[in-house]
Amino acid sequence: MVPKYVFFTNGVGIHREKLASFEAALRDAGIEKFNLVRVSSIFPPGCKIITRKKGLERLLPGQIVFCVMADAATNEPGRLTAASIGLAIPGEGTRYGYLSEHHSFGETGKKAGDYAEDLAAQMLATTLGLEFDPESAWDQRKEIYRMSGQIVESRNVTQSAQCNKNGLWTTCVACAVFVGHTPVDIP
After folding, report:
1. Is residue 107 part of a domain?
2. Which of 14, 93, 158, 169 has its CA at a distance of 20 to 30 angstroms from the CA of residue 29?
3. Residue 141 confidence (pLDDT)
4. Which bin fits 149, alpha (ψ -120 to 50), beta or left (φ > 0)?
5. Looking at the 3D structure of the chain, how many domains does it have?
6. pLDDT of residue 1
7. For the CA atoms of 116, 122, 127, 133, what is the dihedral angle to 10 degrees?
8. Bridge pairing between strands 97-105 and 151-162
9. pLDDT tens string 15-32
10. pTM (2 decimals)?
C-alpha cells in the first residue's frame, strides 16, 4: 500500500488525566475518530499534500489510518512543550522524501518547527549525496538545499503549549496523516 495523499494537522489538549489530554489533543487536531497507526518517516514518491479538510473528507470513523505523529505531554505548571513534524521533498518526483518527528520541552513552536524541518532536510540531503556543514545555521543549509534543486520543498507543522498553571496534563500533537492507499503489485 502506498499513500496517494497526506495532510498535516496539530492540536493541544488539557485534562487532569494524561490519556484524556492526549484524546483532547487528537480531537483538536480532528483525528480522534480514527484508529491511528504510527509509521516511520518516509514520504512516498508522488504523494500529494492536501488540506486537512479534504483529507478528513476521505476518511471514515473507525478506519485504520497510518500517520507520522509527534506528541509531548507535561503536567509541570508553566512548562513549555512542543511536538513537530518536519517534511523534505526531493526535486525528482520518483524519489522518496523524509518526515521527521520532534518532541521537546522549553522550545517555542518556531524553534521546534525549524528543528524538525531541518532534521527532515538533513536526512534527505544525506541520501541525495548533498554536501553541507551540519554546524551551519538552518537558514544557510536551507538555501543550499533549495539552490541545488534536489530538495524542492521543506515545511513543518508544529504545536506548542505552556502547561496549565494548575498542573493539568497538557499534550501537544503534530501529525502527517496518510490517505488514499493504493495496492502495489509486486512483479
Report:
1. yes
2. 93
3. 65
4. left
5. 1
6. 85
7. -170
8. unpaired
9. 999 999 999 999 999 999
10. 0.89
What's the distance, CA 32 to chain centroid? 16
Please tell me the chain's helix, strand, coil percentages from 3-state DSSP, rounded to the nearest 5: 25, 40, 30
Question: pLDDT digits over 89-109, tens only?
Answer: 988 878 999 999 999 999 999
If you average pLDDT over residues 142-162, what whole number do you get? 78
Evaluate whether residue 136 is within a structural domain.
Answer: yes
The C-alpha cell at 25 is 489533543
Domain limits for position 34: 2-181
Arithmetic mean of pLDDT, 170-184: 87
Task: Output the domain CATH number for residue 168.
Answer: 3.50.20.10
H or E segment at 89?
A: strand 80-90
- Residue 152 predicted with pLDDT over 80: no
137 in any annotated domain:
yes
b/e per residue 102-127 (b: at least 16 CB within 10 A): bbbeebebebbbbbbbbbbbbbbbee
Residue count of the chain: 187
- C-alpha to C-alpha distance for 59 and 34, rounded to whole angstroms: 8
Residue 163 DSSP symbol: P
